[in-house]
Structure formats: structure tokens, C-alpha cells
Amino acid sequence: MYLGDNCKLKNSGFLNAYTYTYMFRVYLNPKEARVLVTRAKVEEKDWVLVSRYSTWDKAYKKALYLASRLDYVLEWYLEDQVESVLQIFKN
């Protein structure tokens, strides 16, 4: 689902507030031993931005490497992954 550039969203669950963009980000949370791949800009205090990528594949590979190396849990939003895959077939 396209939400527009710099669209502010509120979420009462995992993310309190975030900005949706077309760049995939890899975040690290050392306190909870988690790695996150998302297109959302995470604004929670324990998450640290590790890197940004233009494609899902590159971001996921980096996150997978970090999670396996540090023995962290790897997380991502299924919507981001599916939308990225469908975009390939759309073009």
C-alpha cells in the first residue's frame, strides 16, 4: 500500500511513531537483541540505524548477516517484502 512520502503514521503496537519512505533501513536493538528491516523510520530510543539500502534484497542480506553474526532475532514487515517482490513484476 502506498502511503506517500513523509507520511506520518501512528501505531499502538511495535512502533509508536514512524515515517514511511522508499528506502529500506536496517536497525539494531542491542538491548533486546533484535535486528529489524523496514521502510519505516523508527523513532524509538533503543533502535540504532545501521544502514540504508535502495532494495529489499540488499537490506535483508545485511540484516541476516548481522542477526546471524550477533545471534539476534531478525524481524521485518511482510508488507515491505511482498511489495518489493511485486514491484519487480510490475516493471
Structural class: alpha+beta
Report strand %: 35-45%
Report the C-alpha radius of gyration, rounded: 13 Å
The run of helices and strands is EEEEHEH
How far apart lie the N and C ends? Answer: 17 Å
How many helices does DSSP assign? 2
Whole-number count of domains = 1
Overall spatial form: globular
Low-confidence stretches: 1-19
Largest sheet properties: 5 strands, mixed
Instruction: Tally the beta strands.
Output: 5
Describe the model.
There is one protein chain. This protein is α+β, with helices and mostly antiparallel strands and 91 residues long. It has one domain (7-90). It is 31% helix and 40% strand. It contains two helices and five strands; from the N terminus they run ββββαβα. Strands 1, 2, 3, 4 and 5 form a five-stranded mixed β-sheet that branches. The longest helix has 15 residues, at 56-70.
Task: Describe the structure concisely.
The chain has 91 residues and is an alpha+beta fold. The chain is 31% helix and 40% strand.
